[in-house]
Specification:
This protein has three domains: about 5-60 and about 560-600, no CATH class; about 145-235 and about 460-530, Immunoglobulin-like (Sandwich), CATH 2.60.40; about 240-350 and about 385-455, 3-Layer(aba) Sandwich (Rossmann fold). Helices cover about 30% and strands about 30% of the residues. It starts with a helix and ends with a helix. Residues about 360-385, about 545-555 and about 590-603 have low confidence and may be disordered.
Length: about 600
Amino acid sequence: MTPQIIVALILGLAVLIGGVRLLLWHRASGAQASPLRTSLLLLLQPIAAGLLYMALFPPGTADSASSLRTTTAHASQLAAAGGSPLILLPEAPAIGGGEAVPDLATALRRHPGVTSLTILGDGLGPRDIDAARGLAVHFDPPPLHPGILHLAPPPAVAPGARFTVGVTLTGLPNATAELIDPAGRVTDSGAPDKGGHVLLAGTARAAGATAFTLRVRRDRRLIEQADVPIWVADNSRPKLLILAGAPGAEVKYLRRWAIDAGYDVTTQMSAGGGITLGDAPVALDAASLRRFDAAIVDDRSWAGSRGALLAAARGGMGLILRPGGPIDGATRSQWQALGFGLSGPGGVAPLVLPKIDAEAVARTRQGIGSEEVPVDIATTDDYLPDVSRLGLTPGGNDAVPLLRDAGGATLGAWRALGAGRVALFTGINSYGLTLTGRRDLYGDWWSTLLDTVARPAPGSRALTDTGWVGQRMTLCGLTGEAQVDAQARMLPVNGCGGYWPTQAGWHMLRSKAAASAFYVQPAGALPTMRAARDRQAMALLSAGEAKQASAALPGQSGTAWLWWLGWLAVSALLWWLERSRIGRRAFSPETATPSLATDASQS
């Protein structure tokens, strides 16, 4: 119940009580009070109460409107035609006859009687969404312009690791998306599918903040270009243990790839007769395995170290199991006991690889440091690498599929094990990909496996929410006072705070919990994506009940002093009339009761 209703009820009750009292007095006084006097007293009481209510809650100004037309970005120039007032927000084009305001809240303060809004253009942004709540909002979104509908940069990546950028295009069925590194080289390109989705891959370089470039072309004409922020985390190199029952090419190429991807690799291979090759021997016990973040173990090494590896996995270490060939029944039973349902005939089965053309193979590059190393062999689709898979498909109720080949067969799955994760990879001789122009696929497989199961490393992280210069951003996950770039301070509410960026580029958010980096796009970047975001926010904005005109904001209501003067005049007239003898007849002992005679004599 609003204060206006409470005050109205109190005043109405007071008028009712006063009227009843006056009627009872008139009935008891008999012919002493004339009906005209009593009628005036009854009439002046509700008038005084009404004037008092209007003085406490004055109505809005006479020129206030109940509806406003609000123009936003890309509003039509024909919006000036219409009856209701036209409001021009800062991002709206210059339209004659409109009232320019810095934000929607200012417009509502200038027009306190507004109950509905008609939004023209792309829709309200984060600055004005909250001000529109409680009003009836009418919004007919225009068609989106062709361009980048959504851009999904990767989270923090390790130095040397490959990453994937997700892009969604709209209105560009025959376009080509290219990902360009800071040196100006194209790292990947692709055409959108039926839904407009494209996945582009790149390789991170040195630790720190950088930005790749996304370029969209159609018919050799540039359609749109945007920055893709990449945060290369400067964390300690994750420690990886590779255990193999015998030396082989798979271990050689896996070790080489892991070092390039930023792992601190320890390799241990058995040569038979108690001879161990590789790095310094590692004791396979709880104390030694605790310092590793992940371990890759083949089926030959699994049998002798199963207990220690499972204990380390339950403690948080990531564990990846791989076959070197067909496995025996004991290994199959042990892997099934981990929660992986292995179905299939067993043995070795062919693995279906995605087809590529000669141009894509020739363009494949693997970054090592700051150099570009070409592929070993540039071949066409007719020559496929000799890569196979175990004839058993990992599954199970608790297992999550992770990798699939081009034929849909599951190559890898993972499940939780205590505080860690264990994954099963069924690929055999995957190193063959690096020899036949598919080094990118080889890196994708193993980086996906390790990123999924490895123990998470502490350190700074990157926020992937997109922000624009001049628009409010909501930064969450904060504990206590936070600071942006050692300049702007914010006091978060429920773990979130607002920030208005004034410069494009990387910014650092620091709070008591951790440090986070986020990227701010220029004000004119990604216009289609920005319009789609505003349209989605408008769709979520419910059309509530219109505000009452009498509930105008303080300082913007009608003139109150006139109502106070009117109430004071009526109250004075009522006070004088109640105490005057006008309308009272002379006292007559024959018609008066004893009590009234006593009152008359006293008066």
